[in-house]
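Sample log: ABC transporter ATP-binding protein.
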Amino acid sequence: MKKGQPVIDRSISVISIKNLVKSFGDLDVLRGVDLDLYKGENLVVLGKSGTGKSVLIKIISGLLRPDEGTVNVLGEDVPQLRGRDLDRLRLRIGFSFQNSALYDSMTIKKNLEFPLVRNQKDLTRGEVLQRVETVLDAVGLSQTINQMPSELSGGQRKRIGIARTLILNPDIMLYDEPTAGLDPITCIEINNLINEVQERFHTSSIIITHDLTCAKAVGDRMVMLLDGVFQRQGTFEEVFNTDDKRVKLFYDYNFID
Ligand SMILES: Nc1ncnc2c1ncn2[C@@H]1O[C@H](COP(=O)(O)OP(=O)(O)OP(=O)(O)O)[C@@H](O)[C@H]1O
């Protein structure tokens, strides 16, 4: 069960999706998805491989257009946004993806400065350094500021990836399989970090994961995508306390405690 008491405002939906439908040719991936992400909440999206979790994230971030339905993110009608308006919205969303690799030829400091210098040109050098130090402190890696990515462990690189996302002060964080490929101790550290980010930066987050230990540790609420719709939602216990064979199978394959 999750520790701490996050401040969640259920009267504000930072993401609101209604009747979302998306197909590719004959393949109906999303068949009428409804979803709200409340302000300050960590929402875990569960679902076996190929159920459309990445498609959902791509639609939320405007990388894919839905066939039907409404997708509202931070008050914006995402499928209607184009060009700079879409870029501006994306800057308010932090993406922590498995393949969001660091630049190997740059120090940690340069890696962290990069998105800031590119997107917020009015900052002074002192302000940039202060932001770098703040996010490094948040992920517990202040001492690595002058190191190269190759000198860090996999878990540390993951933390720096999250710091690089936080440096733009996003309202929403999207974590795609944050613990994939990490050892159990490092998984616990990343789970703790996701909760610390929620508390310290007041972000609202969607966490996509197969790792049910992670889901349990970080999720204020979870939803499970099954056959193109969210069939189960609630707390961990509410989602898994069912006779639905598909849910039981998912649990048996994915829960290691
Ligand atoms: N651009 C695309 N064109 C055609 N088919 C696509 C496209 N994007 C995704 N799909 C298909 O949609 C389905 C859902 O894919 P998606 O990547 O969302 O799955 P997922 O739930 O994220 O899986 P995983 O956990 O393995 O990452 C898959 O069958 C995939 O092949």
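Observation: Residues 24, 27, 29, 47, 49-55 surround adenosine-5'-triphosphate (CB under 6 Å).
Observation: The CA atoms of residues 43 and 153 lie 28 Å apart.
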